[in-house]
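User: Quick sanity check before I run a bigger batch. Here is a single chain. Can you write out its predicted 3D structure?
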Amino acid sequence: MRITGGVLKGLRLAAPSGRGTRPMTERVRKALFDILGERVRGARVLDLFSGSGALGIEALSRGAEEVVFAEADPRVCAVIRENLRRLRLEKRARVIRAVLPRDLLRVPEGPYHLIFITPPYGKGLAERTLKALPPALLAEEGLIVVEERVDAALSEEYSVFRKLREKSYGQTVLYFYGR
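Assistant: Done. Predicted structure follows.
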């Protein structure tokens, strides 16, 4: 797994062993960051269901100010920390252990300009997380990006969040929500 853009472009990331995580493909990640463009530069980012940390690290590579990674498995948190250490990004990142959506209140105070929600497919976690997401976590002009399987249609609205766009890539759909 490689970083697709920014100052760390081409560098490889360690991935957690086993089948517990499903990293976003490089193709979809590159497409996502092409869509986000300059919105990433200087942003505070919240990466929920972080896995290897590839999304958040990609954001740091492309100029994000800070990323908070939230992941349930302590072994996976250790992989994220190691990736951050190896790439010398520890000062711009924080890793918290959180079982989502239950532990959303443990997430450091917002607002965040970008929130990534990339849970395991087929468990309803994206929808439950959107329903439980405190509105104060998202900046006024912020954006939530949700990755789901193509057959898991999400609603047009959750609390104050409204779907702005969706984009399909094979079996993956990216949903974009804002206020």
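The radius of gyration is 15 Å.

User: Great, the batch can go ahead then.
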